[in-house]
């Protein structure tokens, strides 16, 4: 099937295709994201100082505990804002990265994309996408913690996605929707440096230096590498982001446990040790690996079906 020239392919179409692929990947792997979020909160030093100890459980016990204590479908609690997040986040980051790669930064004469440009483009694209999607991430984190709050005898903070948005705006104004956006953007920049940069670099390295074709095998290898690197780079910032977004707030929307992402980082390392920054790493990696695989295979196949050249 002949392919359309890149300049003839509207950016809106790119946005829609990447959003569809991301939504599929998000729903398939969401239970691992919920497990990861619960693990990142458990054993929080700042909560112990406030007399609120939380039991620590590993990945499997946490997941099984959610099913036993809250029900099977609670593994998808917060999935709706997560899908909304990826519609915005993945759509923006993919369009931004391809624009930077193909236009703003530009490829080399041999049509390759230098690594330093790929790193810069991936980080910038991820940061831009996550800034716009940060409010949905905040709602997702708070909804994911509702089951745990009920088991601890606490009053629910939110009853659903729309109520969560209303509550956050009522307490902190529109600016309150961007609570925790700094570590969120930092995380996204690191994750995309791992995801977009690794996938793009590994895929085109394989095409240039091996006998592999631009097909499912090549895409699978590249996406597998991107998931590992993204998990390693992004987990510490993800832990900080989750804790800042989940912390209780006063009537003005100010956090009661942490003053900033730096303060949260210092408290975590001092109170729990450096490895606390990698709490939830296993479910993070176990989620990112299949997420990357599902996303990239879906995205590449959609592009092929509609007759557009691969990523």
Structure report:
The structure is a single chain. The chain is mainly alpha-helical. The protein is 70% helix and 0% strand. It has helices at residues 11-41, 45-49, 59-70, 79-104, 115-144, 146-151, 161-172, 181-209, 216-246, 261-272, 281-305. Helix 1 (11-41) runs antiparallel to helix 11 (281-305), helix 8 runs antiparallel to helix 9 (216-246) and helix 9 crosses helix 10. The longest helix has 31 residues, at 11-41. The chain is globular, with a radius of gyration of 20 Å. The relative contact order is 0.15. It is found in: Mitochondrion inner membrane. Solcar repeats lie at residues 13-103, 113-205, 214-305. It catalyses: chloride(in) = chloride(out). Keywords: Membrane, Mitochondrion, Mitochondrion inner membrane, Repeat, Transmembrane, Transmembrane helix, Transport. Pfam families: Mito_carr (PF00153).
